[in-house]
Design brief:
Blueprint: H1 3-17, H2 22-31, H3 33-39, H4 41-49, H5 52-63
């Protein structure tokens, strides 16, 4: 699995858990980074290797259908 896939899968899972509210999803991820990095080290690695533009593109693809 590549970094984009890892990042996309995790953000999409969180988006679903937060009732498709991107603001709540991003807030949760930012507020709980240390905890998330402990149980999802692959997400930490993916987030570190992707550019801001790549992460924005992934988020855009997740929220676009809505």
């Amino acid at each position: 699995m590549n970094y984009k896939d890892i990042y996309s899968k995790f953000v999409e899972e969180m988006f679903e858990q937060h009732n498709k509210d991107i603001e709540a999803t991003i807030s949760y991820i930012n507020s709980n980074q240390a905890k998330i990095y402990e149980w999802k080290p692959d997400f930490k690695e993916a987030k570190r290797h992707l550019t801001a533009g790549e992460k924005n593109d992934i988020i855009w693809k997740i929220i676009t259908p809505f």
